Amino acid sequence: MAGKNQKGSSASPASKGMTNWKVESIISIDDRGQMVLPKELRDKAKIHSGDKLALLSWEKEGEICCLYLIKSEHLAEQVKGFLGPMMKEMTAH
Hey, what's the torsion of the CAs at 83, 42, 58, 82, to 10 degrees? Predict the structure, then answer.
């Protein structure tokens, strides 16, 4: 049904309250599937050699349309924040 937020929904990140997005750089993928994040962006994001990044995808109409990189420790914090209260409730019963 239109308007319902379900798996596979076509709601955009901006419609979910993520409004601070901007294009930082246009990058290319080489023949081996590798890409280089510009040094200025790595410095600004405090990304260093050896850091772990999670690659998240957003699917729209059955096709991946967007890819997001997030530092793995930030992803872990968000997952803990989301699951923590649920886990406390489950263990309290």
Answer: 10
C-alpha distances out from residue 49 to 1, 19, 38, 42, 43, Å: 45, 29, 13, 10, 11
| 3-state secondary structure (DSSP) of residue 63 | strand
d(CA 27, CA 58) in angstroms, rounded, equals: 19
- Taking a C-beta distance cutoff of 8 angstroms, is the pair 90, 72 a contact? no
What would the pLDDT profile of 16-46 be if each residue is shown by its tens digit? 555 677 888 999 999 999 999 999 999 999 9
Q: What is the pTM assigned to this prediction?
A: 0.59
What is the CB neighbour count within 10 angstroms for residue 9? 14
